[in-house]
């Protein structure tokens, strides 16, 4: 790994704890890596605007790929941006409404949105502090926080551009069925479909994913593909593993995700496994 110049880190399940925060220890190691000359990037399914709430004060990286490759930002400069069409957004929302699948629409120019007409049933889905069944604690708390603080309840979806739509259900069969339908209709709808847990789905612009985002980011910096290392844990990291030269999965990743990577961390995200792996490989 002597040729590594760029490190790409997933967030949820990788550098985020289940409380949806990056630890001070991970932030410190990332800072030390950058001081040592490595470029460190985030490659996340999260929207760009919510990242600041997940990291310590003064947390810095060299660039951020957000919404699964949809947006690339370097020091507040937009390097690339790919939007869903309004027609696609409206059709996906219609399907979610029809099946009572929770959804959040993410415009580039405004906070995430849900139609006012769906407020009653979307809110009812998220009653209780304890997640039902096998739904992850971090995903459940993120949804409740979104409803309370981050969702813009709108009468119409009439924004100019969209980074993604997030879809969620506590019913595993229901979200799996909708995700499969969207995958089948990707070409027709001109979308890309991914997921970061078994209880969600995310739709982005056509032929856009974390892998394409990394490609665009390294081209901006003049870094070669063989100089990249990626760390992730979930299905939306598959494209990142396919593109990255050195690939590392988290100990807490499912076996089928670990099988895609060359190495697996010895510690979980709750134990700062990604940062400590990097410290061991590049700083000691």
TrEMBL record:
NCBIfam families: Cof-subfamily, HAD-SF-IIB. It comes from Staphylococcus lloydii. Pfam families: Hydrolase_3. This is HAD family phosphatase. GO terms for cellular component: cytosol. One of its GO terms (molecular function) is phosphatase activity.
